[in-house]
Amino acid sequence: MNPERDCLGSAKVAVLTERVERLEEWRDKSSKFHNDFYDWQRGQIARDARLDEQLKNMSADIAKVLAWQESQQAKPARRWENMMDKVLWAVLAAVIAFLLGRVGL
């Protein structure tokens, strides 16, 4: 008497055993995939946070450079205004000196 040959459900047991093994293998692969995916996702979140911080720092640096550039561009205008002010006073003093010279003082 051979139990494997005489048992009517042994073929079904073999099919079910194979199916259970494949399902367990799929579960293990799926679990590994999910763990890898969530690790990758955490890495992306950390990378995005670093990039956001770098962008904030870059924006602050750009604002500083723009403020410096505006102040540097304003300097020639202030120099020109100061020079024109001095020229105006010199011309005015020359006119007054000329008039005083004509009057005889």
Written account of the structure:
The chain is an all-alpha fold. It has one domain. 93% of the residues lie in helices and 0% in strands. The protein is rod-shaped and about 150 Å long. The model has no long low-confidence stretch (mean pLDDT 88).
Gyration radius, rounded: 45 Å
The largest sheet is: none
Total DSSP E strands? 0
User: How many helices?
Assistant: 2
List keywords for this structure.
105 residues
SSE layout:
Blueprint: H1 3-6, H2 10-103
Short synopsis of the structure:
This protein is mainly α and 105 residues long.
